[in-house]
Amino acid sequence: MRALISTTTVGAGGSSSISFTSIPQGATDLVLVISGRCDLSGSMGSDVMLAFNGSTANFTHVRVYGNGTSPYSNVSGTGNNLGGITNAGNSTASTFSAITLTIPNYTASQNKTYSSDSIVENNATGFYSMMTAGSWASTAAITSITLTLEPGANWVQYSTASLYSFTKGSGGASVA
Amino acid sequence: MIKSMTRSSVLNRTDYRSMLAGNEAYSPSDFELISTTILGSAQASVTFDVSALASTYKHLQIRIAAQSTTTNDNVDMYFNNDTGTNYSWHSLYATGSAIGADYSVNRAGIPESPAVLASSYNTFTACVIDILDPFSTSKYKTSRTFNGRAVSAGYYVSLSSGNWRSTSAITSIKLQGRSNNINTGSRFSIYGLKG
């Protein structure tokens, strides 16, 4: 069952970050859904960086992405705490990214993993389509998530981020 | 109908002060199936009327399992019956032997399920489309799609995107076979996500 925790909509004037704090600890997984755009000039897209519980340390990731003409893949090649990619100032006006980021077992006393897929659409050759898998080497339960951008960039008005929780079901037989 | 009752079953009881009687409260999901169309006969397109959904849902998801009637084909998506060249499309794809990126701009419609297989392959191409903020009047509309199939006739998987350059709220979504009809048994489901 998917339950909405909260939605943040960026107002006039923009914001350097989007945060979710005091995340309820009673569910199993978290899913972030982001329709975002930033004001980074000279770029079609901006990386979206993650912080869990205020920390940007102990992250690593691998990604595969395409830019309209070629595919690429690398490991932690653009900052270890990469969560996705969003539309920036050089992309088609009024166009916002589509990002879904999943964090399973966010309260478990294990290192955390996450996966995401991101789309930066653009009415031109260039675009970004990216899948990312990452990890956060911390056994702490995740109680807050902060989304920031490349240095100097701000989320623009009408960007939205919704945080959902998934709760595992009960019952059912265990299968060896 | 009670046919018998023992004294002990009445005395050894559990009393509840809540109508839940020890059960968990039901909390409806914020991700809901709105409707499903399964084609009973081949037809050119499937259309979802979403004009009444804006007050309830923030995002939409469409799930497709589709097949073409004759030759391999595409299923294209149109919003609000706009057939003008007001769309763009990009794709990151792999075929098992190659990986690539593709695009098409200033085009009519968004190819949401490239190379839907013909019925002779007895396989339906899977496709999941997410449309974020479809009812916003401040944004152009962006879709994100996972689709693919795994048959020897042609392996294909892609993460693709589409954009409709209009700030109008989406009121209808049409999925149309590009050259052929969509075959019997093809399924189209639309879900709403609250936000």
Features:
heterodimer, A: 176 residues, mainly beta, 8-stranded antiparallel β-sheet, 4-stranded antiparallel β-sheet, 12 strands, globular, disordered C terminus, B: 195 residues, 47% strand
Quick summary of this structure?
The complex is a heterodimer of chains A (about 180) and B (about 200). Chain A is mainly beta and about 180 residues long.
Beta-strand content estimate of chain A: over 45%
Number of H/I helices of chain B? 1
Oligomer type: heterodimer
N-to-C series of helices and strands of chain B? HEEEEEEEEEEEE
**How are helices and strands ordered from N to C of chain A?**
EEEEEEEEEEEE
Q: Which regions of chain A have little confidence, pLDDT < 50, spanning 5+ residues?
A: 172-176
Summarize the main sheet of chain B: 8 strands, antiparallel
Low-confidence stretches of chain B: none
SSE class of chain A: mainly beta
Mean pLDDT rating of chain A: 93
The main sheet of chain A orders its strands as: 1-12-3-8-9-10-5-6
* Structural Rg of chain A: 16 Å
Strand count of chain A = 12
Structural class of chain B: mainly beta
Question: Major sheet of chain A: size, sense and barrel closure?
Answer: 8 strands, antiparallel
Q: Greatest chain-chain interface? A: A-B, 41 and 37 residues
How would the global form of chain A be characterised?
globular
What would you note in describing this structure?
The complex is a heterodimer of chains A (176) and B (195). The C terminus of chain A is likely disordered. In chain A, a hairpin with a 4-residue loop joins strand 5 and strand 6. Chain A is an all-beta fold. An eight-stranded antiparallel sheet of chain A has the order 1-12-3-8-9-10-5-6, with no helix packed on it. Chain B is built from one helix and twelve strands. With 195 residues, chain B is an all-beta fold. The chains are: A mainly beta (176), B mainly beta (195). At the A-B interface, strand 1, strand 3, strand 5, strand 9 and strand 10 of A face strand 5, strand 6, strand 9 and strand 10 of B.
